[in-house]
Amino acid sequence: MTDVSYTSPAGEYDTQLGDYFALMKPRVMSLVVFTALVGLLAAPVSVHPVIGFASILFVAIGAGASGALNMWWDADIDAVMTRTAKRPIPDGRVPAGEALSLGLALSGLSVMMLGLAANLLAAGLLAFTIFFYAVIYSMWLKRLTPQNIVIGGAAGAFPPVIGWVIATGSFSIEAWLMFALIFMWTPPHFWALALFMKTDYNDAEVPMLTVTHGRRTTRIHIIIYTMLLAILAVGTGFTAIGGPLYLAVAVVLNLLFLKGAFDIWRRDETVAQADGYKIEKKFFRLSLWYLFAHFGVIWIEAMLRPFGWGGW
């Protein structure tokens, strides 16, 4: 169990404002804001700009709350892993208790204000997303099962659905297609990271697939999920949120993504280690552009549709 009283080796803190911002995982928050905004703008119902801006702001605050709660709970394993050792709590810049207080306060604020700015369904979905990430994923799945990323990926997939619900007040197949894109993208994205962060998850005793089933199995899983993702992503081009431009971009990106996954699958571990996991790192970088590009072109299709562009 996480040591929630985790302190720095010196037991002293010199906290700066930027450290509290770092607790909210700004990189993750930027992805949440972007996909939620696309979900809002792709919806067939227009939203007043002030309401839209306020709603996305509260979604961002909710994402920050999730990040702070995650860092509070994971402070012990963050201290062990090279990738996370410089985060504010293990680096001794923020007390764990303050991270917990910040996460809880922002959670309540974001949900309450989104309910006032948009609707109760969107607020309820944001509350569920925070709970799913902080409790279901961070506190339960992450240290329990190699399927942690697969199931836990749902937390990161909810923002475009929240955006859609902000605009429409209801769910739809289009919203869940955007959810599915992120959900299916998450495992190969993180498994590629796990391949070249060779010892981090072993050292922290986190049951990532590379630890529990081996690196060969992880490579097989990457190509399987990538093939399923490609079918979903290209198929979305023929739906109401797709269109000719989306379809063209999706075909090119998924061919590149499939090639990257195939290259990873056929790699021998000894060769990969010898060249510094260059192909795995390249695939991971491509995965970042992959998601932004798909959602970016969904946004463009939505913006062009009033002018008679796109649609099937």
Structural write-up:
Pathway: Porphyrin-containing compound metabolism; heme O biosynthesis; heme O from protoheme: step 1/1. The chain contains 15 helices and no strands. It is mostly helical. The protein has two domains: 1-171, UbiA prenyltransferase (Tetracycline Repressor, domain 2, Orthogonal Bundle); 172-312. Helix 2 packs antiparallel against helix 3.
**Total beta strands:** 0
CATH hierarchy, class of the largest domain? Mainly Alpha
- Beta fraction: under 5%
Distance between the termini: 52 Å
Helix content: over 70%
- Main β sheet profile: none
CATH superfamily of the largest domain, please? UbiA prenyltransferase
Mean pLDDT: 91
Q: Helices and strands, in N-to-C order?
A: HHHHHHHHHHHHHHH
CATH architect. name of the largest domain: Orthogonal Bundle
**What oligomeric arrangement do these chains adopt?**
single chain
* Structural class estimated from helices and strands: mainly alpha
Number of helices: 15
Tell me the CATH topology of the largest domain.
Tetracycline Repressor, domain 2
Q: Which geometry do the CA atoms define?
A: flat
Outline the low-pLDDT stretches: 1-10
Q: Give the C-alpha Rg.
A: 20 Å
The count of domains is: 2
Transmembrane segments: 28-47, 53-73, 94-114, 120-141, 148-167, 173-197, 218-238, 244-262, 283-304
Main location: membrane
Protein name: Protoheme IX farnesyltransferase
Function: Converts heme B (protoheme IX) to heme O by substitution of the vinyl group on carbon 2 of heme B porphyrin ring with a hydroxyethyl farnesyl side group.
